[in-house]
Design goal:
single chain, 14% strand, 14 helices, globular
């Protein structure tokens, strides 16, 4: 690793060219450097998770993203929209097992207005003490367009109604790739605008990167540096979550999925490059339990959520499931102390 290793271990910031060169370095050396970087934020030998539920309240979406295996067009015989009571029941099931976080996710449904979302959020908050980490940047941006209100006003209304934070849903922040895989979705600048506006009103967010979508390694670094640059300005990102694209049942089913070594390298490089984001997730949903567990030795400090009822990734044929007991087992097996956290990454309880 030579000079780059010295910079990684000493905590110095790496630039674009240095980041690109990391993909050619030794896997284990990358893991060691990433873990050294992790200690800046996490001195204790703890790995965390959150008890949460994904509620995909509709599968209707007008965007037609080519990487999506889940959504249907308006008017489809398979289309659905959950009632508020159905959503409330799902949240009640989450709270009964000690869950704290709800992620509401849907497509761009042409029949759903800003008032619909605000009424739903208010209804949830009146009934349950849960953190609403919900709605994608694309949903927020489209609500701004359909309501005729500026992004800031839309986010203030949603936040006032009960929206606590925004998930990443970034795919890959490179417009060359976005024009191929999701030509009707928001572009890179619009995604960054939603996030910066959310941070400006005091909302924190997460950032993601879905890789293996025909991007180059240099474009992965480009994505990571866009996140780092925005974090320098706002400090609003709580976590970064890289995961691999699942091509089955999409328009790109012939693509070769990224392998385990590529995943671990990208995870470690994310931790090394993102010197200003406190938390990096290892993703069991797309990578499986064992690879996510190994990710805890490659710079990750968090396994994300148990994701009750995850549907979108499952639509590609990947059906990993987990539970609180499995999370504890994985973290202990990685030689770390398991701890349940909330969405603010504050520890709620540790498991001996």
């Amino acid at each position: 690793m030579s000079d780059i290793a010295n910079k990684a271990f000493s905590g110095k910031r790496l630039d674009f060219e240095e980041g690109c060169s990391l993909f050619n370095k030794n896997l284990l050396a990358l893991g060691m450097a990433a873990n050294e970087r992790m200690k800046k934020y996490h001195h204790e030998n703890i790995a965390t998770f959150v008890i949460d539920r994904n509620i995909t309240f509709t599968n209707v979406c007008v965007l037609g993203c080519r990487f999506c295996a889940f959504s249907v067009k308006p008017g489809s015989i398979e289309a659905y929209l959950l009632s508020n009571e159905e959503i409330f029941h799902k949240i009640e099931e989450l709270t009964e097992i000690g869950g704290t976080q709800v992620m509401l996710q849907g497509g761009i449904h042409p029949g759903l207005s800003l008032d619909y979302y605000c009424n739903l959020l208010e209804g949830i908050k009146k009934r349950f003490n849960v953190w609403l980490h919900s709605l994608s940047p694309t949903e927020v941006y489209c609500l701004s367009k359909t309501s005729g209100l500026p992004l800031k006003d839309v986010l203030l209304k949603l936040n006032g109604a009960g929206l606590d934070s925004l998930p990443g849903a970034a795919e890959i922040l490179v417009d060359r790739v976005r024009k191929i895989v999701s030509p009707h979705k928001i572009n890179t600048a619009q995604w960054l605008d939603v996030m910066e506006t959310a941070h400006s009103i005091g909302m924190h967010t997460t950032a993601t990167m879905t890789f293996g979508m025909m991007e180059t390694k240099a474009e992965r670094i480009e994505h990571i540096l866009k996140i780092r640059e925005l974090q320098d300005r706002t400090g609003g990102f709580k976590a970064f979550i890289p995961w691999t694209f699942s091509p089955d049942n999409t328009d790109f089913s012939t693509l070769q999925p990224a392998g385990g070594i590529d995943y671990l390298k990208t995870l470690a490089i994310s931790r090394i490059m993102l010197d200003n984001i406190p938390n990096i997730h290892a993703g069991w949903v797309t990578e499986g339990h064992k690879l996510a567990q190994i990710g805890l030795a490659f710079g990750a400090n968090d396994l994300g959520g148990i994701l009750m009822e995850e549907k979108v990734v499952c639509a590609t044929g990947i059906s990993h499931q987990t539970s609180v007991s499995k999370m504890i087992e994985l973290i202990k097996g990685a030689g770390k102390i398991p701890a349940q956290r909330d969405t603010r990454y504050e520890i709620l309880r540790r498991f001996s």
